[in-house]
Write a structure and sequence with these properties.
This protein has 831 residues and is an alpha+beta fold. The chain is 32% helix and 21% strand. Among the domains are: 149 residues, no CATH class; 61 residues; 162 residues, Rossmann fold, CATH 3.40.50; 111 residues, no CATH class. The protein is built from 21 helices and 31 strands. Helix 13 packs parallel to helix 15 and helix 19 crosses helix 20. This is AAA+ ATPase domain-containing protein.
Length: 831
């Protein structure tokens, strides 16, 4: 007889103490009686005293020292160790029952103790058995010297002897990892959870068998299915009926003991991952064990490894609870018991919401996509890893969703940040797999079918009844199409995607539910206050750089701005601080629909080695090329100063930038207010140079007016600006004497608005309307004037008179009359 331990459903072991009866005289006589009965040719295998084989047989296998079989007993009634008078011998060549319930006991013999009844010493015939190595060893010693035994009773195993019933199970069990129905006969550990999970499918199959079954086969199959269903009903029928009544209540309830009824492999369930409800397919679960009494549930979803979609298996814990609990309140909720909150889910059911987000994620995986993000970045919640190279926290701004780019550039991102990669990021291919990670199961490619000869021979070679899981794995987003069962595919597709955050120039893990298309400001040039010549030049260049891609998809910079050349375009914007240099770059990006990567000294570093700075610069320039972005290097004079024979370190830094600019194929914008310090080698590499003059009173008045207009537009009428406030900033002599630049005007507006909002809150203004008054602007500008006077006094006390004049000049660099307002590098024959 084979051992049926291959199916392990996490059942416990019950241990009791009792006197060993394995070698009693009655046991020996019973064994002799069974040997004699087995020689009777008229006796049927598995037969009871009436000669008939019962549909359900209960057998007991008793093991002793060294786990060697002592004897075996069979009955047509459930095993009771106190009443085994109806046991019969076992044979396996002939008629068999429909199902057999096999129980195994293991005796561990030990010395007698006070208070424990022991048998008197008696002789037991010495038996010998061949060991696995082939040698013959004694099974037990010849005498029982008053020892006791701790008997371990294993949970019963159901053996399906009926081939009709086994084929029926093969026809209804579609996906149940760790249960193998290909062998014969199939076996299940108590409490037979796979069978309880498929009761309805078996009943449906019983009433709708394949048409190729003949009448006798169908009748036998029906009878054997009924035998199994009756056994299941007698075994746990009442308890399960009560549990299912709880499931059917208006507010479905569940008990911890029978929560496993809802954990059928293949169902979709929702649980929180990074505090976001996420859909998984249930793969397997383990019974409550240990002191916590928690269920361990394994589920999988689809995640990208940067190239293809693969299943990622994760384990979740459902803690113990007392009494009844609403199913929708649990940490793991089966999809059929999810309580929809349409208001919180955007008017969609949870399934519709998950599918919608899955479709968006699939599109984002295909190529880099320019998007707007508003919400928490994944990994930003308390208790998660804080030493991360990717960005966390709340973020509102523009991002580029780039799954493949993350795989390519993530190594530099960790080096750039000085931090190690966090193991909680969730990219299985790029992170070491945990030792205790769930093993990946096998997904079926076809629907289950009856295993009988007729059904097996009736199916064509090219089967069309594919499994709903077929084609889910191994898809390449940029090349492949979604599988036929696209709803399930989108439902369990991960809703997280890596993206490059433009505002901080770092990578972050984005939740697709917080993404929306970018709305560019087409009126950006309307609010740009610069000389008309510069404005016309910039607007003429925008059309050349406008993105030719559709929607939010990005097109990288091509290699053919000029035929047979692979050069980029370098713009130099120079002038005093706050005259519109950075704003011009932002307007070009807005008007052209391209991202803007604005770099600062902190991104590139100045105290690093030349090789480190070069790697950082090439990293950002490569991203700019990949995304078709405008790369802005603010205050570029730090890296482009004139080389000196005595400063080898400075010379090396300049050489790094010269080499990078020579081979860059995108659009690079440099801003500075110290052109005089530039190395002359850069002048031949600059394609367009734009000089920004100092602001006049007319320019400042227009900037104030434009800021007021944009404030009213962006606030949708929630913020109003009083006429007195407008008149104050446009005509007051003290305001003109301050001579604010554009950046100072913007900062003053933001501070004054904060004061106005505070006053509105204190006054209890209805409808949340905020009025920006003269007093708010006056308070801010008075502080600005005081600070400027103090700064000027400090400069006059430190600098000699001649240097003061240079400091207060038009710009800290080449005089204005030596640089044209609009400069084209005529060395390039393409311009």
């Amino acid at each position: 007889m084979r051992s049926y331990d291959k199916v392990d459903d996490d059942n416990g072991v019950v241990t009791v103490d009792e006197s060993s009866d394995a070698y009693s005289d009655s046991s020996v006589r019973s064994r002799d009686r069974r040997r004699k009965a087995n020689t009777d040719p008229a006796r049927s295998p598995f037969a009871c005293q009436d000669g008939n084989v019962p549909d359900v047989v209960y057998s007991l296998k008793r093991f002793g020292k060294f786990d060697r079989l002592i004897d075996r007993r069979v009955s047509d009634k459930p095993y009771d160790k106190d009443d085994m008078s109806e046991d019969v011998d076992v044979a396996y060549d002939g008629e068999k029952p429909v199902i057999e319930i096999l129980t195994k006991t293991y005796s561990r013999r030990r010395e007698g103790r006070p208070g424990v009844t022991t048998h008197p010493s008696r002789y037991v015939p010495r038996r010998r058995s061949r060991s696995r190595s082939g040698s013959v060893d004694s099974v037990e010693s010849g005498y029982d010297s008053g020892q006791t035994a701790a008997v371990q009773v294993r949970s019963p195993t159901m053996i399906i002897h009926s081939e009709h019933l086994a084929n029926a199970l093969r026809a209804v069990v579609a996906y149940y990892p760790n249960v193998d129905l290909s062998g014969s006969p199939p076996a299940f550990k108590a409490p037979y959870r796979p069978l309880y999970h498929h009761r309805r499918e078996l009943a449906e199959y019983r009433n709708n068998q394949p048409s190729c079954h003949d009448a006798d086969y169908a009748e036998t199959t029906t009878r054997h299915i009924d035998v199994l269903l009756r056994f299941l009903a007698d075994n746990l029928g009442d308890a399960i009926r009560l549990e299912e009544e709880r499931h059917a209540l208006e507010t479905p309830l569940a008990t911890h003991q029978y929560f496993w009824l809802l954990l059928k492999p293949g169902i979709v369930f929702y649980t929180k991952k990074h505090h976001i409800w996420t859909a998984y397919v249930l793969s397997s679960f383990s019974s409550p064990r240990g002191s916590d009494g928690a269920y361990r549930v394994t589920g999988w979803l689809l995640e990208s490894d940067g190239h293809r979609l693969e299943r990622n298996l994760e384990e979740f814990t459902v803690s113990r609870w007392q009494g009844e609990q609403p199913i929708a309140s649990l940490s793991l909720v089966p999809e059929s018991f999810w309580g929809d909150d349409l208001a919180a889910q955007g008017g969609l059911t949870m399934r519709e919401k998950q599918i919608k987000e899955g479709k968006l994620c699939w599109e984002l995986l295909k190529r880099p996509t320019y998007m707007q993000y508003d919400g928490e970045l994944i990994g930003s919640w308390p208790g998660e890893d804080e030493q991360r190279a990717d960005q966390t926290g709340f973020m509102r701004g523009r991002v580029i969703c780039d799954d493949a780019g993350f795989s390519r550039f993530w190594g530099f991102a960790t080096e750039h940040s000085g931090r190690s990669r966090s193991p909680s990021y969730g990219r299985s291919k790029y992170l070491p797999r945990p030792v205790d990670a769930p093993a990946r199961d096998h997904l079926p490619t076809a629907l289950p079918r009856c295993g009988c000869r007729v059904c097996s021979g009736d199916r064509p070679n090219n089967r069309t009844d594919s499994s709903p899981y077929r084609g889910l794995e191994g898809l390449c987003p940029s090349k492949d199409t979604p599988p036929d069962n696209s709803d399930l595919f989108y439902l369990v597709l991960s809703k997280a995607i890596p993206g490059f955050v433009l505002g901080t120039r770092r990578w972050g893990n984005l939740y697709v539910g917080n993404l929306k298309p970018v709305e560019t400001d087409k009126d950006a040039f309307k609010y740009l206050v610069v000389d008309d010549d510069i404005k016309r030049t910039v607007q003429a260049l925008v059309g050349q750089f406008a993105s030719n891609s559709t929607g939010d998809n990005l097109s990288p910079w091509g290699n053919d701005f000029v035929r047979n050349k692979g050069e980029g375009r370098i713009f130099l914007l120079h002038g005093q601080p706050g005259v519109g240099k950075t704003c011009t770059a932002e307007c070009i990006a807005e008007q052209s629909g391209r991202p803007l990567i604005a770099l600062t000294g902190g991104d590139l570093g100045s105290a690093l080695s030349h090789s480190q700075i070069e790697r950082r610069l090439n990293y950002f320039l490569e991203l700019g090329q990949r995304y078709g972005a405008l790369v802005l290097v603010d205050e570029a004079d730090v890296y482009l100063e004139r080389r000196r024979a005595s400063d080898l370190s400075r010379n090396g830094l300049v050489s790094v930038f010269l080499r990078a600019l020579e081979y860059y194929r995108g659009v690079l914008v440099l801003t500075t207010n110290r052109v005089r310090a530039f190395d002359t080698a850069f002048l031949s590499r600059i394609h367009v140079a734009l000089h920004y003059k100092n602001l006049t009173d007319e320019h400042r008045e227009r900037i104030w007016t434009h800021n007021f207009d944009r404030l009213a537009r962006d606030s949708a009428g929630r913020v109003r600006v009083s006429e007195a406030a407008r008149a104050y900033v446009c005509s007051d002599r003290d305001v003109r004497r301050i001579a604010c630049n554009g950046r100072e005007i913007r900062n003053a507006m933001q501070t004054a608005l904060a004061l106005a909002e505070s006053d509105a809150k204190d006054d209890g203004v209805p409808d949340g309307v905020v009025t920006l008054c003269e007093k708010h602007l006056r308070a801010v500008l008075d502080m600005t004037r005081s600070f400027k006077d103090y700064a000027a006094q400090c400069v006059s006390n430190v600098l000699p008179h001649g240097e003061q004049a240079e400091y207060e000049g038009s710009e800290h660099g080449l005089p204005v009359d030596q640089i044209p307002e609009v400069y084209y590098n005529s060395s390039d024959d393409d311009l």
